[in-house]
C-alpha cells in the first residue's frame, strides 16, 4: 500500500515514519510513504509563496489553488493508479474505524494537508477529494490528522501487525464494534488489586465469556451509542438517564 502526503511541512513526518510499527512496515516493503512539499509547485520562483490574503478581507492566509492542485496532479502522475485523494479538514466527514476499513481497501491514498485558514475553495471543486476530519476541534494543520489516518489504516494492512497481534479484538472492531475488554499482566497482585481469577484459570471458554461480558459492560457504561446507536448525550448536552446506566 502506498501513501503520498502533500504538505508544507514535510520535515514533520521523518520522526514519525522512523519509529516502531511504521518503520518496520516500510522496511518490510508492506507500505510506502512518500512526502511531497507543496511549496515545490509554487509559481513564485523567488519566495516560493503558496498562500495569500483572503478575497473579501479577514484574518489569516489562504492556500492558493494553483500550487496545491499542481502538487496533487504531479504526485498522482508518479504511478498508473491515481489513488484515493483525502483532504484533511475540520469540515470533512468524521473519521472512525468504519472509515479506516473503507480507506484500507485502497492500494494508494494521497493525503492533502492544509495550514493557515484553509484552502482556496477551488481546490475542492477541482479535485473533489474525500474530505475527512479527525474530530470536532481545530488543529493548526492537517499533518497530525494525516498521521492519525496512516497510523490507523496500516493496522489493517495484511502482515503489518505480527502474528500474535491482531486488530480483531481492538475497540470499534470485529462484528460488534464494542470497546475492548480489560487486560492484565504480571504481577497477579499490585497495591492490593488482584487480577480477576478467571484469567488465571486456564479455562479458555470461561475467559472468552468473561471478556465478552467485560467488553459489553464497559461499552454500556462508556459508549452506549456503540451498542444501539443511542446518543450518549441529549441534544441539550445532558447525559441521558436510562435503565441501563443503573445496572
Ligand atoms: N485540520 C485542522 N483541523 C482538522 C481536523 N479536526 N481534522 C482534520 N484535519 C484538520
Description:
The strands form three sheets. Strands 2-1-6-5-7 form a five-stranded parallel sheet, with helices on both faces. It has a two-stranded antiparallel ribbon with strand order 3-4. Helices cover 31% and strands 17% of the residues. It has helices at 12-17, 20-27, 65-76, 97-104, 121-127, 143-154, 204-222, 225-228, and strands spanning 2-7, 32-37, 51-52, 62-63, 84-94, 108-113, 130-133, 189-190, 193-194. The protein folds into two domains: 2-154, Alpha/beta knot, CATH 3.40.1280; 175-246, tRNA(m1g37)methyltransferase, domain 2 (Trp Operon Repressor, Chain A, Orthogonal Bundle), CATH 1.10.1270. The longest helix is centred in the last third of the chain and has 19 residues, at 204-222. The chain is elongated and about 70 Å long. With 247 residues, it is of the alpha/beta class. Residues 234-247 have low confidence and may be disordered. The structure holds adenine (ADE). Adenine binds at residues 88-90, 133-135, 137-139, 142, 145.
